[in-house]
Structure formats: C-alpha cells, structure tokens
Amino acid sequence: MGFGGRILYDLLLTLAVALITYNAIISSTTILLNPGFPGRRGAPPSRSSSDPVVQMPFDRRRAEGRRPRPFHTAVTASDSVYNAWQCRVMYYWFKKLRDATPESEMGGFTRILHSGRPDKLVNEIPTFVADPLPAGTDQGYIVLNRPWAFVQWLQKADIQEEYILMAEPDHIIVKPIPNLAKAGLGAAFPFFYIEPKKFESVLRKYYPEDRGPITDIDPIGNSPVIIEKASLLKIAPAWMNLSLAMKKNPEADKAFGWVLEMYAYAVASALNGVGNILHKDFMIQPPWDLEVGDKYIIHYTYGCDYNMKGELTYGKIGEWRFDKRSFGQKPPPRNLPLPPDGVPQSVVCFYITHA
C-alpha cells in the first residue's frame, strides 16, 4: 500500500501509533443527533461524456516562484462527544501534515463551535465560539447551525488568510493540500448525490430561470471547498437564509433531506456568481472508493462492514466494522482490532488514524 509514496505511508503508520496515546476519553452531556447519510447500494453511477467534473489546471504546480496563497481551514462542530473525538483526530492529522511540510499552503485552523459556550477542547484546538440558532429553529436538523456559525465567524474573527478551506470533523487529511482555487473560482468536491437537474422544479423557487440555467448550480456542498474569503463573505448570508427557507418548505425539505444544507450552499454560490472547479481528486469516501492514491482527504461518513474474508457486507452489520455512528456517546476505544486481510486500502488508511 502507499499514499502516493512509501514514505508518507510509513509516516502515517508511525503517527497512528502515536495517536493511541493521544486518543483520550472525552466526556460531554450533549449528544449530537445522528446526521444520517444518503443511501447507497453500490458504487456511484458512471458519468457520461457530459460529466460536469473537470480536471484542475496544473499550471500552478509548474509555476515556480508563484506567490504562496495560504488558506485557513475551518471546521464547524457541536460540543457533543460525537463531534469532539472527530475534531481531535481531524486536528491531530492536520497539524502533522502541515508541520511536516512547512512549504505547504495550509495555514491556520479554527474549530467553529456552535454551542454558544466554550468546551473542554478550547485549549487544545483553536476555537471560535458561535451562538446556535434560536431553540427550535433547526427542527432537529442540527446541520442548520453550520451556515449561521460561518456567518458569525466571518463577521467577528480576525482571519489572516485570504482563502478558506471548509472541512468537516470526519475528514482525515492524508496529503498536504495545495490551494486548489484559482482565478476567482472556488475548488470543490463533486457529490454524485447532489443533482440540481433532477430537482429543478424545486430549486427554481430559489434560483429563478432569469438567473441562468440550472447547470449553474454545481453538484457540491460547502465542504470540502477552498474559496476566497471575500467570496465566502458574500455567499454565507445567502447560504444561511436559503437553508432556513428550504427547511421551512415541506417540498424542499422532503426532496433534499439530510443534504438540504448542501443544496442551499450550491444555490447560494450560484446566486453570487461564484463558480467552482470540480476537483474529483479532492477526497475519497470509503468503502466505495478503494484506493487513496493522490487524494488529499478521506471522508469516513459511510459505515464500513466486512466479513472476515475482507468482503463488503454493506447494509448488514459485518463481523468487522467501523461506523462513526457507533461512537455517539464515547470515542472509539484504544487498540481497535485491525481489519481482516482483503479490506481495501482506503479503509485501512483511515482506520489506522483512529487506532
């Protein structure tokens, strides 16, 4: 196995051992509601020749002497145990990769805590405390606090970098991330389940025909996205208002479900004339993506279930499994059992970061 090279793989293995001593038990009285995830029975559908995903231009990699464009990484979180252990793991690997490559464009880091009060991690992880939405506003959909938290952070925080990477607690950075944004365009990962064309009749309530074709709405969420701070300052209020409006609309709420806030960001971006370079190598999502390759982020949102032959048993609890939702009230224990032979490299890679 390799993450783009044997050296990085050895580094991750070494650091995974260090993480065993790092992963302490976190206590909290607030438990995050299960965020769910889009259902899936097999690999994502293959894309046609009209594939909206475009390759990033690589001229910036060849341009020696180009002025560095550092970006600030921001992660929103609640004060739940569920979010806390994910943030600790995420920040641990962020620091390791950034510190190991001082020439990278990975700049500062902020956990945007939308609980309205400091928690036990404020002295461990750089944290901005944001107010939650008024009680009952999120209607049990806690993700609605994310755009509101970003609005507060952008208005009040002193952010030195001119670019921002919006990430999530369940992201593991496995390769130093360059600034993938370019020429006024954001850089975003395309999700196969964000389908603006499929829901055009619903989206036209928020993106009228006189604004442009429905294809102006990119198949993205807010994360992972690298974007100019100036652009995000314009997008964030619209993202917040659209999220709230869609949640109040039964038709939109039913159509978009747990990815409603992602659709709201995509529409807000289009309304503000901010396009995105769709970078399919931004991250992988095990167990569907099997190899890490040259990807930058592992997103472990899906449960991984296997029998002892290393065969995927998705939809059925496996003899060996890792599902972040199994750890809603306490973090993963130390010395987790290793996956059986035959489990894909992508699963092994993110798993050892939690060992």
Automatic annotation (TrEMBL):
It comes from the Eukaryota. It is found in: Membrane. It holds the Pfam family HPAT. The chain crosses the membrane at residues 7-25. Residues 40-50 have a biased composition (Low complexity). GO terms for cellular component: membrane. Keywords: Glycosyltransferase, Membrane, Transferase, Transmembrane, Transmembrane helix. Residues 40-67 are annotated as: Disordered. GO terms for molecular function: glycosyltransferase activity. InterPro entries: HPAT-like (IPR056508), HPAT/SRGT1-like (IPR044845). Residues 58-67 have a biased composition (Basic and acidic residues). It is a single-pass membrane protein. Residues 71-348 form the Hydroxyproline O-arabinosyltransferase-like domain. PANTHER family: HYDROXYPROLINE O-ARABINOSYLTRANSFERASE 1, PEPTIDYL SERINE ALPHA-GALACTOSYLTRANSFERASE. This is Hydroxyproline O-arabinosyltransferase-like domain-containing protein. It comes from Musa troglodytarum.
